[in-house]
Amino acid sequence: xxxxxxxxxxxxxxxxxxxxxxxxxxxxxxxxxxxxxxxxxxxxxxxxxxxxxxxxxxxxxxxxxxxxxxxxxxxxxxxxxxxxxxxxxxxxxxxxxxxxxxxxxxxxxxxxxxxxxxxxxxxxxxxxxxxxxxxxxxxxxxxxxxxxxxxxxxxxxxxxxxxxxxxxxxxxxxxxxxxxxxxxxxxxxxxxxxxxxxxxxxxxxxxxxxxxxxxxxxxxxxxxxxxxxxxxxxxxxxxxxxxxxxxxxxxxxxxxxxxxxxxxxxxxxxxxxxxxxxxxxxxxxxxxxxxxxxxxxxxxxxxxxxxxxxxxxxxxxxxxxxxxxxxxxxxxxxxxxxxxxxxxxxxxxxxxxxxxxxxxxxxxxxxxxxxxxxxxxxxxxxxxxxxxxxxxxxxxxxxxxxxxxxxxxxx
Length: 411
Ligand code: AMP
Ligand code: MG
What we know:
Elements: H1 12-21, E1 29-33, E2 46-47, E3 57-58, E4 62-65, H2 67-72, E5 75-76, E6 78-82, E7 97-100, E8 112-115, E9 119-122, E10 125-128, E11 139-140, E12 151-153, H3 164-168, E13 174-178, E14 182-188, E15 192-193, E16 204-205, H4 208-218, E17 222-229, H5 233-246, E18 249-253, H6 262-271, E19 272-278, E20 281-282, E21 286-292, E22 296-300, H7 304-322, E23 333-338, E24 349-359, E25 362-367, H8 377-381, E26 384-388, E27 400-405
Bound molecules: adenosine monophosphate and magnesium ion (MG).
């Protein structure tokens, strides 16, 4: 068998290329307090208004000295002190030293700081047990971390807990970020019941929205939950209209597979240009993408694992581009040895759910069990995807496969 046994399936790369080709990043920016800006995307290059550190300062608790003084004597009387926030002021007499603490300003003329562990206190002053001192020893120079005018962080970066302290060190209290993309989403299906109500014959709980909402938010977007919409043309149409008036992107789950919900197709034809695709991805074959009058549309398959994976693999890059998050990249692939066989037929790229371990520096992976597109426990138990190439067939234990670790959005 080869991929040509499934000639009508669109490869994931082609789908992604098609989806991303029309997307233009959001331009509108807002100014936020630094502490509220986490998860937002920087709207412009962030230039440092100051040097960090702003002055030469000590990296150690110890003594500020002049090397020439120390070459004359190993013992120097104390002339004063420089503490963090309380610099030494006044004249510094020759042949003396100054007590200095970590972060304190280096007194003018100082060549080096000697850590207190290399000294002892005597009646005639501080004795330095190691006289071989290098220039600028233990001195953190002005601008050592960031220089005034440097691009501290480039436009398109999404702000993390690692960025905020760096920006705060520049004294920047407010920051210009892009507004987040708004994503309206709803589940479709007469069989779906909200949580908190007992199931009647033939019904299931609507579980998809419980994965879609947190993912959208973790992708850096605002999520607008429009609930469960029954398979009813009028209600569906009204919901699509409402969704596209409120959001940049409309995400639905269910109702896009072959043969079902022809009226969904009719509605979408009426209010936009939508392609109903069959993708070479498993799970997640039925997928719809296109443009409504005022929003992009992504129609996820109804099966819970399919909905979740297509949102992660296909919609996430679209939202990153729309949100101006230019640094976004998918997680890298890592080769791992399989601990068990994996069922696979050529024709589609599989995103099976696995658990990787590292033993003696080698990656191994095993399956989470039942890989049905409706069996969400396979996702819940997993810590990686086992990405099996489109043309690959069954995988035996001991073969090498590519695993993709989960990004932080799956935690
Ligand atoms: P559909 O794409 O509408 O044909 O749905 C495919 C399968 O996914 C069916 O078994 C549906 O019952 C199920 N399904 C659809 N939407 C949801 C949902 N929101 N939560 C859980 N299962 C769903
Ligand atoms: Mg349905």
